[in-house]
Input
Amino acid sequence: MANPHVCLIFRSSIKVTPEPTSVHFIPMKSLPNYLQAQRKRLALSQEEVGFLLGLNGMNKGDKVCRDETFAREPSLLDALAYEVIYGRPVRELFAGLHHQAQQRVAERAKVLSFRKVRNADAPRKQTIIQLAESASVNHKHHDPQ
Amino acid sequence: MTHNKLIRILAIAPTARGFGYAVMEGSSRLIAFSNKSILQNKNERTLVWVGKFIRRYEPAVMVLPAVNAADTRRAKRIKQLHQRLVGFSCSNARKQLAFA
Output
C-alpha cells in the first residue's frame, strides 16, 4: 500500500492469492436500494423528501430514514414518487430488489419451460426461454467460477 | 444494473468527538457518508455503530487510518479503538489482510 496513513482490512468476498500483490474480488450483491446516495446527491433532507412523498405527521423524515436503512420496503406509489424526485428509474434506485425479482422470475420461467404447454406458439416459447436463460446469465455474473 | 461488479468499501475515521464514515462502491460511487457525534462511552458506541454499518452495507473492504504510523499522533483512546475495530472486523471476516 503506497499511503502509509491508511490501514486496509479486507473482509469477506475476497480471495487472496499466494502473491500479496494480487487480490481477486468476487462481485458483490447490490444493496437493496440507493435512496440515501441519491438524496445526498441532490442535497435534500429526509424531512423534505418526506414532504415531497406526501407523508403526514410531525416526523415525515422517519419513514424516509427507514426506507434508506432497508428497514422498510416502500409501496409502489412511494417507489414511483422516489423515481420522480430523484430522476432515476426504479430499477436503479432499488437495484437489489430488482435483481431479486429478476432472479425469481427467471427461476419460475425455467420451471415453466419444462412444462408441456398446450397450443404453445412460437412467441410464447421464445419469451419463456429468454426469461429462463436470464437466470443462468445472472448466476454466471454472481459466481465467476 | 442487476449485479454489482465493484467492491464496497467502508471507511471509518475515529475522531475526538465520535467518528466519520464513508461507504463507496468502487472508486467513484459514494453511497453514504456522515459524521457521528458520540458524547459518552465513545469506543463502545462506535463499535456498535460500526457493527450496524457492516451488517447494513456488507463491505468487502474496511479502511482505517493507520494510527501507529511513524509520523502520526493519536490519543490513547483512539489507538485502543483502532485495535478493537481491527479485531472486530477480523472476527467478521473470512480472510483479511492489513497494510500499514
